[in-house]
Design brief:
437 residues; mainly alpha; globular
Length: 437
């Protein structure tokens, strides 16, 4: 039952039923599902010991706590409670998945459910895209205006959904994550199964195309690059990815909009304001959820949003969760132990890198710091680690496993600090280069 509730909550979080049907709002469906998930997890999760050995749950708890602390440090004591109530629904998929998914079959059920939800979103959206006039308002279509050389504006539609996926870029990001996850179902020699996977992939990628997201082009390039690198090597991956990006742009993937520093002028303005907020309070930022109080647009960068609102301390926990997950995937992809599912764990670990790197690529241009999609992905990484530990022939911790755990803790802390300062430097250099363009 706990697994069913975990999957249900994760899927409903992305489907946003209260936004689709506003009449459901008074019933507080998501709160009841979340409460049921917490109760069932506390009473039924069989592998607390395995899960609590990993650093991710503690980092997530610290990150949640920092959302409240940053508001208290800014003098808004009542805002601490509001911060927790705001962040918990987005982070809850992490805990529900991490503590209730511990078999490969359960991972597949979760991914299949997200894929089914994606098709459920896409079918009415694609129909609306081809039947609704672009100049007319529709909840599943965003009206994009592009300035033409003659001074007029061209209006075209971009696919979107409700709730947290209301922006076409966010929608494309989510769809690409699902497209990457679906690769776990591909099985050599299974014609019918592979045809189903291929059909679903084509539908999802077509939906991504209809969002006309510029960030999606980069995300597809990153995902394709890693897939090709694993199969054919780095040289072939670079060449093939370059050709793929050229083809996507030639097909009008971005709707005619340029991918350049000039076209992102509003984004770099927001970056400049975000860096100013960080400089004003480098340790704990200007407060969770306060970016829009200082600038009229969001940060358009998930790292910078976290840095400006929660400072170096809060950002350390957020980046740390990602770093630990990447290190864990790297370890599992090349050495998954001696359990009966070791080979499949290795394959899943390699595949999970694709959607995670895709999400991180688009997050550099989107404000998705607190995205349920990100926390669901990170929870899947944890779940895969649990599968590996549970399947070991010697489940109790050995001296070697304890030494590896100590090494992992040392590595992630130092790598996290380096990633923080490297990201700050990259944003700073980008802003400096803008003045020379």
């Amino acid at each position: 039952m706990a697994l069913v509730i975990a999957i249900l909550y994760t899927v409903l979080t992305h489907l946003s039923p209260m936004d689709v049907v506003p009449a459901l709002a008074p019933f507080r469906i998501m709160i009841w599902v979340m409460a049921a998930g917490v109760v069932s997890t506390l009473t039924n999760s069989p592998y607390f010991g395995y899960i609590l050995r990993a650093p991710q749950p503690y980092l997530v708890v610290c990150f949640i706590g920092m959302t409240a602390v940053t508001r208290i440090l800014r003098g808004w004591f009542g805002g601490a409670h509001l911060a927790l109530m705001d962040i918990l629904p987005s982070v809850m998929p992490f805990f529900l998945i991490a503590f209730n998914v511990y078999r490969l079959s359960q991972i597949r059920w979760l991914i299949a459910s997200l894929a089914a939800a994606s098709l459920y979103m896409l079918i009415p959206g694609i129909y609306a895209y081809w039947t609704i006039d672009p100049t007319l308002l529709h909840p599943l279509l965003f009206q994009q205006r592009v300035l033409q050389p003659d001074g007029t504006y061209e209006v075209f539609s971009r696919l979107r959904y409700y709730g947290i996926l209301n922006d076409p870029n966010d929608y494309a990001q989510f769809l690409l994550v699902v497209a990457g996850l679906l690769l776990v179902f591909w099985k050599k020699g299974s014609l019918v199964r592979n045809m189903v996977v291929l059909f679903t992939e084509v539908m999802i990628l077509y939906g991504v195309f209809l969002t006309h997201s510029r960030g999606a082009v980069l995300a597809i390039a990153v995902m394709a690059g890693f897939i090709l690198k694993d199969r054919y090597g780095a040289g072939s991956a670079v060449l093939s990815t370059t050709l793929l990006v050229t083809l996507l742009l030639a097909m009008g993937f971005t709707g005619g909009r340029e991918i350049s520093m000039e076209s992102g002028e509003g984004r770099t303005d927001a970056w400049s304001e975000g860096m100013g907020m960080f400089k004003s309070s480098p340790l704990w930022g200007v407060g969770y959820g306060s970016f829009l109080e200082y600038h009229n647009k969001t940060a358009h960068n998930s790292f910078l949003l976290c840095l400006s609102e929660m400072g170096l301390i809060g950002c350390f926990f957020w980046v740390g969760i990602i770093v630990v997950s990447v290190l864990q995937l790297k370890r599992l992809a090349w050495r998954a132990g001696t359990g009966p599912d070791a080979e499949e764990v290795q394959r899943y670990a390699r595949i999970l890198r694709y959607p995670l790197y895709s999400f991180l690529t688009t997050s550099w241009f989107l404000s998705r710091t607190y995205s349920p999609t990100l926390f669901s992905l990170l929870a899947l990484v944890m779940a895969l680690g649990t599968v590996q530990r549970v399947g070991q022939s010697v489940p109790e911790p050995t001296l070697q496993s304890l030494q590896e755990g100590k090494s992992l803790i040392t590595n992630w802390a130092s790598v996290t600090v380096m990633c923080e300062f490297a990201s700050i430097a990259l944003i700073y250099i980008t802003l400096r280069l803008r003045s020379f363009v």
